[in-house]
Design goal:
- The chain has 222 residues and is an alpha/beta fold.
- The chain has a single domain, classed as TIM Barrel.
- Helix content is 34%, strand content 22%.
- It contains eight helices and nine strands.
- Strands 7-6-5-4-3-2-1-8-9 form a nine-stranded mixed β-sheet.
- A hairpin with an 8-residue loop joins strand 3 and strand 4.
- Helix 1 packs parallel to helix 3.
- The structure holds zinc ion (ZN) (2 copies).
- The site of one zinc ion (ZN) has 5 residues, from loops.
């Protein structure tokens, strides 16, 4: 299976231009079998939706409901859509990809946005949640202590940013971090630029997390 680990949809990411159903269609055309929706997940986004009629207390439920629509549309087409997050903590412009976060934890997200990577990293380790820094060597990012992280996005496909993927790869090698790749898809031209290839078939986030923990995949770059 070919799976993109970093995809944004227009319903949950202000910078995303593609509705989730169209993402599914485009990714099928591009030869993929699935993707993880990793929409921006932050206090800023909670405040944005609050201004548009969704109270902050319902932000997580809204996030999950939008994901559920994408999952159901994908399922009709035999395409796997899984739910991830691109976390941003208050007062920082760093981004983190999170896989395997349980719902009851997400319901506490407004508090979590205040935690920062060290506290969240420790929590993630305890709960077996996978916590990767996204595009750590882009402008305005600060690479965090490797001990906070499970891994690092060593190939980010975003064509309108220089993510300095070669430096991310060298850093991850040096500090023995798990390595992932994704398109960071926001627009049509970004569809399917990077992801992972796995042997066999998976159908749940738990199964994906198990493969990621054991590094049982190959990085795919178009
Ligand atoms: Zn974005
Ligand atoms: Zn992103």
């Amino acid at each position: 299976m070919k799976i993109d680990l970093h995809v944004h949809s227009s319903d949950l990411s202000l910078c995303g231009h593609i509705p989730s159903y169209e993402l599914v269609d485009r990714y099928i055309e591009a030869g993929y079998d699935g993707f993880v929706l990793t929409n921006h997940f932050s206090r800023e986004m909670a405040e944005h939706f609050d201004r548009h009629g969704i109270p902050q207390s319902e932000y997580f439920a809204h996030y999950k409901a939008c994901y559920e629509k994408a999952r159901a549309y994908g399922a009709e087409k035999g395409f796997l859509v899984l739910c991830g997050y691109e976390f941003r903590f208050n007062g920082s412009s760093n981004d983190y990809l999170v896989y395997g976060m349980l719902d009851e934890i997400g319901e506490n997200c407004l508090e979590m946005f205040g935690w920062g990577p060290e506290k969240f990293g420790q929590f993630a380790r305890e709960k077996d949640i996978l916590f990767y820094q996204a595009h750590p060597f882009r402008n305005h990012m600060r690479v965090v202590k490797p001990s906070c992280l499970f891994g690092m996005e060593v190939h980010n496909g975003h064509p309108r940013h220089d993510s300095r993927n070669d430096i991310a790869m060298a850093w991850a090698e040096k500090y023995n971090l798990h390595k992932i790749a994704g398109s960071d898809c926001h627009q049509i031209e970004d569809v399917g630029l990077a992801g992972i290839e796995i042997e066999g078939t998976i159908s749940t986030m738990e199964e994906l997390c198990q493969l990621l923990r054991e590094d049982r995949y190959k990085i795919y770059v178009r």
